[in-house]
From TrEMBL:
Protein name as it appears in the record: Uncharacterized protein
């Protein structure tokens, strides 16, 4: 049986050991933890650690970074908690709403945290790097970054909603500079050859209005002067009729500059109709019997050109067929006198050979293309 004295001595020894725990781990009696309630120092220190954490990190916000179970004295633990709490203050400054999942405790220096946070801003607000010219180094507030992103999006939605021109609005300080850059591209696309110089892209705030203005003038050109032969700029005219009148003046200057015909150019809306009317007038005036139907009128620009050729044919006829025996041979079908004279001489030769006495007055050698046809006609 254990003696009373031994029991007392064991109890005193146990208490002295427990007092040493307190002296070692809670010397200032700062934490209300009774060392006598615990059988081992480990249990006692764990109880103290709970008090330390309750005091320094009651919400266990830092337990993944400052693990209280790894500390054997309060001062070291408290010092590290203070260090990490100072890092949390970075978030209060940069991300007070905890909107982005970037924990400042993961970074040793504030600048590293800020760079990571700004990368998160970029990933969230501009994931496809549409606005690459926004310099995050110059921005210290996510709201400022959001405002800049929204501003650039507004510019793009208003002026290039389909991103057709691939111009990043963030490279410009104001909207006018951005639109000016777009205007240059509009000009290049819709008026590359500067055919519509009077339509100034600077007067338009969006592509559709500018392109519609160009298309409107282009429709006039396609309607009246598709190949822009007369080099008139439709955009110089306020209305379609003014442009057409200018073209009519060009037609007049080209085909009838001396007003030698009675055809009024104002009666015609197309160059072709006007020219056809002139040709008919020439024929009715100078060849009313339509004796010359082989002329290629595309070769004639004015009535003078026509009259030169017409008079040449009349002279050929006087020289080769003064009596008009071979009038069915259209001199206008031939380019020169030699060709025409050859045809006359052929018919004369056929006639002299097969009908020298002119017995077949009803058979005209001019009605046949070759001698055999003519000869066979005579035999019938």
């Amino acid at each position: 049986m254990i003696s009373r004295k031994r029991i007392i001595r064991f109890a005193i020894g146990t208490m002295m050991r427990q007092d040493r725990w307190e002296k070692k781990y809670n010397a200032n009696h700062q934490f209300d933890v009774n060392q006598y309630d615990y059988f081992t120092s480990k249990e006692y220190v764990n109880a103290l650690r709970e008090k330390w954490q309750d005091l320094e990190d009651p919400e266990c916000e830092l337990e993944d970074y400052v693990d209280v179970s790894k500390y054997s004295n309060y001062d070291d633990y408290a010092c590290d908690v203070v260090e990490y709490k100072s890092r949390l203050e970075w978030r209060d400054q940069w991300d007070c709403d905890c909107e982005f999942e970037v924990n400042p405790c993961d970074f040793e220096y504030e600048e590293y945290y800020v760079k990571a946070l700004k990368r998160a801003w970029k990933k969230e607000l501009d994931p496809y790097d549409e606005f690459e010219y926004i310099d995050l180094e110059l921005i210290d507030d996510v709201n400022e970054y959001k405002d800049r992103i929204d501003e650039c999006k507004e510019w793009k939605d208003e002026h290039d909603s389909n991103d057709e021109y691939n111009v990043d609005p963030s490279q410009f300080d104001d909207e006018d500079e951005y639109v000016d850059a777009l205007r240059q591209l509009w000009k290049r696309k819709y008026d590359y050859f500067n055919e519509f110089s009077s339509i100034d892209p600077n007067e338009y705030s969006n592509k559709d209005d500018y392109s519609n203005a160009i298309e409107n003038k282009k429709n006039w050109m396609n309607k009246y002067d598709k190949d822009n032969v007369y080099k008139l700029d439709p955009s110089d005219y306020d209305c379609e009729e003014e442009y057409l009148d200018a073209l009519r003046s060009c037609w007049q200057d080209k085909y009838d500059p001396s007003f030698k015909t009675n055809i009024d150019v104002d009666d015609y809306d197309t160059e072709e109709d006007y020219r056809n009317a002139l040709i008919l007038d020439w024929q009715e005036t100078f060849d009313s019997k339509h004796q010359f139907n082989g002329f290629n009128f595309d070769k004639f620009t004015t009535i003078d050109d026509y009259l030169v050729e017409l008079n040449d044919r009349l002279n050929w006829i006087k020289e080769c067929d003064p009596e008009g025996k071979y009038s069915k041979i259209d001199a206008s079908n031939y380019d020169n006198l030699i060709q025409y004279k050859h045809q006359i001489n052929l018919r004369k030769a056929w006639k002299n050979k097969y009908d020298p006495n002119n017995e077949h007055t009803n058979i005209d050698p001019c009605d046949y293309n070759d001698v055999e046809e003519y000869h066979n006609a005579l035999k019938r």
